[in-house]
Amino acid sequence: MRCKDVEKLLPGYLENNLRAEEKARISFHLSRCPACTGCLELLKRTDAALAGIGDLDPGPALMARLQAVPSTAAPRRRFSVFVFKPAIQPVLAGAFLVTAFIAVLAFTPVGGRMIKTLNRQMHAGYSKITRLYARAESIADSLGGAREQVIVSLENLPPLGGDQR
After folding, report:
1. Can you give the residue ranges of every domain in the chain?
2. The model's pTM
């Protein structure tokens, strides 16, 4: 155990508020470390000195001043400070635009028409692709035995618009 860890646990060790295993580890450390033993002795002396001081009753003037402190403190504005940070503003602007676009699509008649148009265009494109695949299969079937040779020669062609060395 490191001295830093032991120093954090010494008040609990002094008040006997630790588990048995922690207490044993601290006792072992204290038996080998004079610095931590000195800290424990200082805590014991401080505890004894504070035990001799009785409870103090604050006067009415002090209590009035203490109760007035929260009312004079400036209100905390965590959210507004977070929102107005320059690094966060582009993210918030993007989130607002996406939210506004989704709201237009979901809650306006124009949005409904846009969704229907997109749906029609997607289905038209899908049916064109289906017809293209069907046509390609019929061409492949009509090739018969030469099909493999055509595929190999097509694979060896350079890409469209590429270098034709």
Report:
1. 3-49, 89-153
2. 0.36
